[in-house]
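As the work plan foresaw, our protein records have gained a structure token line. A representative record is set out beneath this paragraph:
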Amino acid sequence: MTKTLHHRACHLCEAICGLTIETQTEADGSTRILSIKGDAQDSFSRGHICPKAVALQDIQNDPDRLHQPMRRVGNEWQAIEWDEAFALVAERLSGIQARHGQNAVAVYQGNPSVHNYGLITHSNYFLGQLKTRNRYSATSVDQLPHHLTSHLMYGHGLLIPIPDIDHTDFMLILGGNPLASNGSIMTVPDVEKRLKAIKARGGRLVVVDPRRSETAAIADQHIFVRPGQDAALLFGVLTTLFDEGLTRTGHLPVEGLDSVREAVAGFTAEAMSARCGVPAETIRQLARDFAAADKAVCYGRMGVSTQAFGTLCQWLVQLINLVTGNLDREGGVLCTEPAVDLVASTSGGHFNRWQSRVSGLPEYGGELPVAALAEEMLTEGEGQVRALVTVAGNPVLSTPNGRQLEQALDGLEFMLSIDFYINETTRYADLILPPTAPLEHDHYDTTFNLFAVRNVTRFNEAVLAKPRGALHDWEIFVGLAKAFAARTGAELKPTMAPDQMIDMGLRFGPYGDRSERKLTLAAVREHPHGLDLGALKPNLAARLKTASKAVEAAPAVLLADLQRFAAQPVPKGDELLLIGRRHVRSNNSWMHNYHRLVKGKPRHQLLMNPADLDRRGLADGQRVRVRSRVGVIEVEVAASDEMMAGVVSLPHGWGHARPGVQMAIASEQPGASANDLTDERQLDSLSGNAALNGVPVEVEAA
């Protein structure tokens, strides 16, 4: 028996923490995981680890994980061979497109797609052949407003400025809880120490949230804000900066700032106070404190994106950083220079070139908002979606009005899922193709290095050998592509393995063959603990991809959206509004099938302010019925003074008791799906992003 130490990063969340994994080779040749610990020598995470990384061994050993292609026959699942599976997909999808058109096949890609480089490099090798406009992803239930704002202001949807958390004096966080998320569009392992370090060096941390979250609990100041009204608070901050002469001129070329000042003039702190529930003087003082700091960061995350004015929120965040001189400034927000630079190597993207068939929602980057997916399946007529391909996703639990989506999935002619679980969504599939598990394949992070608080790089070698008969995800897409091309007579371009693509990306990147570092994949592999490429530096002026080569402060579509904001009525004071919440042990619904992540205190309850409970004659721990426009759930309620009065919170990803789900541990967990309450009609209509926060609900005894 031989023991071996492996060094790689965890890619179950955005923090990409370095790990030391000890394995033992048994006498029969099999390999067993002995321990998973934080890598103290990792150049980025410095030994930090969270529970999700330790649970990698639960994924590896999960008896519910699929290991071979499975075909549904009636209510039973039967194993089939890979080549037979590929041929079946080619036959069914090509036939549906021949009868009903290319757009009759839809694609949904889930959140884990960006955590696996094989999916990033090769999914379109097959999916691109479908040539369908019905492409959807988890982006439009999360960060779409981030991308659209950067596309409009900076010319590229991935050119997103990142908080320089290690050098700032004042950090303002809205709609984010990095202590639970480990950072998010801010790749930042060990975030708690970094946030506390701001305070230790004399700086301030302020959190704006309808819940006193884990991050708010360590902040210098926490401000309750009415769900869905962060834009009102941000408008009040911005107009205060203008009105009180608190702006600073930066070094960047900027177009349209005078137009912004004129357009937002009426949205003063006093006018916005009734909307957001924050006193006008608190808003004004927040603006003054932010402007007075030498180096300040305004950071808005998922909570401000998944609301009716999510894109306005992200625009206002960028403007506040811009007008205070903190955009592209050390201690403010900065853009990365990753070793594999997707901004430099790809086009800036496009927006609203076509719209969804039923509701006319805009595309962004070739994808339509996922809130439109169910209606595109259910609404008859030319262009109706009749087949679906899902990739590493569970939209029944993660997109609005999951019950409606279930109805739509049940009526499809054919459904293919690339996944290794029979979950709430894939149980409707005709065929499931399971890839290898995270420790069985190598990986290079092209996505989260784009959003890291330092420029870093590392290549993650596979820890365990690929099982006999298994395929990596990229090999699955190559097999599908070949079968589909053979069936349709299409010409298929040659491809290469993902690691070869990364080597090319490194050579053509900012640290590659033409630089002093001469960075190649072989060079990166020589640093198993990762390679630090340096702190973020000002670089936005040279990286702008707008036609004007300037920051576009006043995009026409954003100025036009001010009319929608102005027309919104003042919120009712007596209604309950639903928000989500994140936990450090829960990122995706399949993580609820791992005993290391579901153990401990229950986390499925509806959190509710004690005064709201009293007004409804409800008690802590009681089972309650929660009702929205689209559905009703029953769940246990928990009294919590963390909650703003008039606000209730339910976490995402629970509700596993649906029939046909083959995830034993998850199915035993209590709780209900928050997305059985969220409304597919409640959107940020500018981007089409789902408004998952601020959903009106009623709560009564069950």
